UniProtKB/TrEMBL annotation:
Reaction(s) catalysed by this chain's protein: tRNA(Ala) + L-alanine + ATP = L-alanyl-tRNA(Ala) + AMP + diphosphate
Keywords: Aminoacyl-tRNA synthetase, ATP-binding, Cytoplasm, Ligase, Metal-binding, Nucleotide-binding, Protein biosynthesis, RNA-binding, tRNA-binding, Zinc
Protein name in UniProt: Alanine--tRNA ligase
Family: Belongs to the class-II aminoacyl-tRNA synthetase family.
Cellular component terms (Gene Ontology): cytosol
Source species: Buchnera aphidicola (Aphis gossypii)
Length: 884
């Protein structure tokens, strides 16, 4: 095929390389320098700092093919995917950028040359149309007089609602910040209908598609009403690779270009669908690409943040897979074929196949049950509606109770022609969010009470004591100039050897002192870019600008360092034993223990726990040195340093390495050699959320003490069992068999006792209006046996009401049973409610059997008379309908 998608990408980059542009690789889907974005959603994201401050620029001209994901916020394409020919969750954005270099004229000429030159894309000029901002006369004249585009092929787009700069052709980064007019280039599939372009923005004529947007960043928005010119001007462009490929491959749908055509055909082979235009096939082909790239970025499905987006995409994909006949719990089996297809264009994905398949398998297993329950309830609710609109409360109930995604419910309703009241859904969601935040307000704001715009140099990697100067003092959340004996507060210094709580490592403790004044540091925390020493003055006083000495508790720090280095060993050992599917999700490192959270979809067996311990202790016995070096972020990645790359890192990073076993980006403190760890012991493993595991461990003397405690427990158990510790397992097995035999004997005796009691109490049966009624009171009888007695009496008597009470010390249990033929007249639950009303007891049940317990029974005989009277009244008019 001419102009394959790969060839188009390469041609674009080659063109701009010839024009003096530096070709940069796509940045991560996780934005490094923008906490406002969940995912990279445009080519300009990685250059945002350059637009805001041109002095930071490393290059004057750049071109990229950027991986993007649009699934939330302003750019939320998820619900449109599959229903239009152009929308995707994952896509590539081709872009060329100029940072205070060329501007409007060159950007437009470059675009036109690339699109129309026979050497490059060779698109017929007559098929291209242009839009410009109405007030941008300069751009209009460049198109008209320099590029020589016909005035009939240029449309001026004005402001909406008479609001200045509120236009489709005026781009803005946000409510404030860099902005400017833009010009867009459109392709017309049907040149016979040229006059339709003037109406394009109103009626979205499918014959026209926007293929390139060129933004002229020449202003800075100060406020909603004020815009000023920028000293430095820049160019930001974007052209969707999938869109331009559809043009150059002469197809009207992105889903018919080479990369999707092959993928869709492959998916259809596993389904019952032969029509390759099927919406579900499009959705699956789009979503599987997003899943693969997100998992490659070490994102795991979860119920929050980026993991929640991945889970939504997976679940939407699975729902459509089942819809087209791919069997439940089997989609993951076709994933290797799809990955192989996709990695033809992205070689760097190879090696992640196993991890991707494993994660999708676990998600599919978990979602099958959710889908089944959710669909059942949704279909019931759909049958109830009369106005072709379903309540948002129903959608929220499905989401809150079963984890059934709202967009999935909306998808299903859309297919059935039913609207969803999303406003009420979001109201319900917001209501729950506010309720859940009530208890978190204090904790959320606690560390933000002190807000200091200053820095503090940390010099504690090599020093335990240094001389410093006091810059700020806070007492009871207020800034003061002096803190005296007995007062608690937070002291901020110009430099410190105290490590602040960060990266999972707890803060140092120690003391600040000069002359006879002493401040005991009980914790150290970060406040923005500065460090606070939290504690209490025990002698003397401290003033702002005082010089003092900082001294950490060296033993406390050493224990933390040992546990931090052990955590690095644990991370590496987990990946060695369990595979590269393991990704760090968090940690806690203290002076007494360590905790490590990571993504892993399966239960970790005891044998694997022991393997992990063996691997770590082997590294400890080797007594390897632990080295620290500083290098660029790119160098660290080339060394395959492990990191939480969702975090932000400076251009120069700190790398901690343990020979060839572990290499991680880390700002924490570490021991010098692995031998200092002494011993490593895992004491607990747990699952803290779906797909996220937690391991807790001990080192050195704490690990040894744990083993000693276990030995003591075994010895105590052996003494109780009156056997040796080497034989107690055998003794326990014998006891289990004995207990089992005793239970069997007790059951036989209880059955005999129940038969005896039934014979005894049936003489108390009386008839009320042709219905048998048995009320009996037991003393200290086996409670479970009462249920068995009721079951037997129901079998023996076709139409009977049974009320059994058991007095046990200060408690009264009541069980009511009613045969099915009587439940139209009265129920066991109604009988129990009478008992609860007169005793303030608790209970519940069903129509045929119900029970209650109470400790507040003053006059039992009186209550039973009330129950009997109520039963009589209920049956009084039913005589003709009841068997005699």
């Amino acid at each position: 095929m001419k102009n394959t998608t790969n060839e188009i990408r390469q041609k674009f980059l080659q063109f701009f390389q010839k024009k003096g542009h530096t070709i940069l690789p796509s940045s991560s889907l996780i934005p490094k320098n923008d906490s406002t974005l969940l995912f990279t959603n445009a080519g300009m994201n990685q250059f945002k700092d350059f637009f805001l401050d041109p002095k930071k620029k490393k290059y004057s001209r750049v071109a990229t093919s950027q991986h993007c994901l649009r699934t939330g916020g302003k750019h939320n394409d998820l619900e449109n995917v599959g229903y239009t020919e152009r929308h995707h969750t994952f896509f590539e954005m081709l872009g060329n950028f100029s940072f205070n270099d060329y501007f409007k004229k060159e950007a437009i000429i470059y675009a036109w040359e690339l699109l129309t030159s026979k050497k490059w894309f060779n698109i017929d000029k007559n098929k291209l149309w242009v839009s410009v901002y109405k007030n941008d006369e300069e751009t209009y004249k460049i198109w008209l007089n320099i590029v020589k585009v016909s005035p009939n092929h240029i449309i001026k787009v004005g402001d909406k609602n008479n609001s200045k700069y509120n236009s489709e052709n005026f781009w803005q980064m946000g409510e404030t910040g860099p902005c400017g007019p833009c010009t867009e280039i459109f392709y017309n599939y049907d040149t016979k209908k040229n006059d339709d372009f003037s109406k394009f923005l109103e009626n979205k004529n499918e014959n026209f598609i926007e293929i390139w947007n060129i933004v002229f960043i020449e202003y800075n928005r100060i406020s909603s009403t004020k815009i000023i010119p920028l000293k430095y001007k820049s160019i930001d462009t974007g052209m969707g690779l999938e869109r331009i490929s559809s043009v150059l491959q002469n197809v009207k749908s992105n889903y018919k270009i080479d990369i999707f055509k092959k993928l869709i055909k492959q998916i259809s082979c596993f389904s019952k669908i032969t029509n390759l235009n099927n919406i579900s096939l499009k959705i699956i082909s789009d979503h599987i690409r997003s899943c693969i790239f997100l998992i490659y970025e070490n994102i795991s499905p979860s119920n929050e943040h980026r993991g929640y987006i991945l889970r939504r995409i997976i679940r939407r994909m699975l729902r459509h897979a089942y819809k087209i006949g791919i069997k439940k719990n089997s989609f993951y089996k076709i994933v290797p074929n799809l990955i192989e297809n996709i990695t033809e264009n992205f070689n760097f994905l190879k090696g992640k196949e196993k991890k991707i398949k494993e994660i999708l398998k676990i998600e599919e297993t978990q979602f099958s049950e959710t889908l089944e329950k959710g669909l059942k309830i949704l279909n019931i609710e759909i049958k109830k509606i009369s106005n072709q609109e379903i309540s948002g409360k129903t959608i929220f109930y499905l989401y809150d109770t079963f984890g059934f995604p709202a967009d999935l419910a909306s998808d299903i309703c859309r297919e059935k022609g039913i609207k969803v009241d999303l406003n009420s859904y979001y109201l319900e969601k917001e209501k729950q969010k506010k309720q859940s935040n009530i208890g978190n307000k204090f904790y959320k704001n606690f560390n933000n009470i002190i807000n200091i715009n200053d820095t503090c140099n940390f010099e504690g990697y090599k020093k335990n004591t240094i001389k410093s100067s006091i810059k700020y003092i806070y007492v009871k959340k207020k800034i003061v100039s002096l803190i005296s004996e007995g007062e608690e507060g937070t002291i901020f210094l110009d430099k410190t050897c105290f490590y602040p709580e960060s990266g999972g490592q707890i803060g140092d403790i120690g003391q600040l002192y000069y002359k006879k004044s002493r401040f005991i540091v009980e914790n150290t925390k970060k406040y923005g870019n500065t460090i606070g020493h939290i504690g209490k003055v025990i002698t003397g006083s401290f003033e702002i600008n005082n010089f003092l000495y900082t001294k950490i508790d060296k033993f406390y720090r050493n224990q933390i360092e040992i546990n931090h280095s052990a955590t690095h060993l644990l991370h590496a050992a987990l990946r060695k034993v369990l595979g590269n599917i393991v990704t760090q999700k968090g940690s806690l490192i203290t002076n007494t223990r360590l905790r490590f959270d990571f993504s892993y979809p399966k239960i970790i067996s005891l044998s694997n726990i022991q393997k992990i311990e063996n691997v770590i202790n082997t590294e400890i016995y080797k007594n390897n040195s632990i080295k620290v070096q500083y290098c660029s972020l790119e160098e660290a990645k080339n060394k395959k340093a492990m990191a939480l790359f969702e975090n932000k890192y400076d251009s120069i990073v700190r790398v901690v390495s343990i020979k060839n076993f572990s290499t991680e980006l880390c700002g924490g403190t570490h021991t010098n050699r692995t031998g200092n760890i002494g011993l490593f012991k895992i004491i607990a493993q747990s699952s803290i959320s779906s797909g996220i595991k937690r391991i807790e461990a001990l080192t050195q003397s704490q690990a040894l003490q744990f083993l000693h405690n276990q030995e003591s427990e075994i010895e105590n158990i052996s003494n109780i069992l009156k056997t040796k510790s080497t034989n107690f397992k055998e003794k326990i097995n014998k006891l289990i068999i004995q207990v089992k035999n005793l239970k069997t004997q007790v059951h036989i005796f209880q059955e005999k006792e129940n038969k005896y009691q039934i014979k005894k109490i049936i003489s108390n049966i009386e008839k009320i209006k042709g219905v048998k009624l048995l009320i009996n009171v037991f003393n200290n009888y086996d409670y479970n046996s009462l249920k068995l007695i009721i079951d037997q009496l129901k079998k023996d008597f076709p139409s009977i009401i049974i009320v059994l009470i058991n007095k046990n010390n200060n408690y009264f249990n009541i069980i009511a049973g009613v045969t099915k033929d009587l439940t139209n007249y009265l129920t066991a639950l109604e009988i129990i409610k009478i008992f609860i009303k007169h005793t303030n007891g608790k209970g519940g049940g069903k129509n045929e059997i119900a029970e209650s317990v109470s400790s507040n029974v003053i006059n039992l005989s009186k209550i039973l008379k009330i129950i009997k009277s109520w039963i009589y009244s209920k049956l009084e008019n039913k005589k003709d309908n009841i068997h005699e």
